[in-house]
């Protein structure tokens, strides 16, 4: 990613850190994936986090997070919505959304359609719908979507 995405990358990383939280040891996330650091499921070498992996430092977790955002999630969001290159805040927020839920979910969503139409009010309404896990509303997801919505304009 070029320097024109620096602000968006910082926004996405800050949102991820705030809502993922740092955990040094592998843990099973609510979606059932072994996860470590700031919500990392896939390590930089492409292998999945395993229950038996050793603890990592916060510095290592930061490197993993920035690498994932820069190399996987932000490019995936930009392929789906190239116009976001001109909207650093929204790009950062959609990158965080994709980190949380996956690029395919973003790509297939009505949220993406609202973003591409630059219907920012509609995009914020769509974000507010993505708060369920296991069929129930999670307070953490409500807070995360509200924080993302603040950058969508």
Helix content: 40-55%
Q: Work out the number of β strands.
A: 4
Largest sheet: 2 strands, antiparallel
Number of helices, where a helix is a run of at least 4 consecutive DSSP H or I residues? 7
From the helix content, strand content and strand pairing, which structural class follows? mainly alpha
- Rg over CA atoms: 15 Å
Shape field: globular
**CATH hierarchy, class:** Mainly Alpha
Give the strand order of the largest sheet, numbering strands 1, 2, ... along the chain.
1-2
Primary descriptors:
4 strands, two-stranded antiparallel sheet, 153 residues, Lysozyme, mainly alpha, globular
What is this entry, summarized?
The protein is mainly alpha-helical and 153 residues long. The chain is 54% helix and 9% strand. The protein has one domain (3-149): Lysozyme (Orthogonal Bundle).
Task: Report what the structure shows.
There is one protein chain. It is globular, with a radius of gyration of 15 Å. The model has no long low-confidence stretch (mean pLDDT 95). It has helices at 6-20, 58-80, 88-101, 103-107, 110-116, 120-127, 139-149, and strands at residues 23-28, 34-37, 132-133, 136-137. 35% of the residues are buried. It has one domain: Lysozyme (Orthogonal Bundle). Helix 5 (110-116) packs antiparallel against helix 6. The strands form 2 sheets. A two-stranded antiparallel sheet has the order 1-2. A two-stranded antiparallel sheet has the order 3-4. Helices cover 54% and strands 9% of the residues. Strand 3 and strand 4 (136-137) form a beta hairpin. By secondary structure, it is mostly helical.
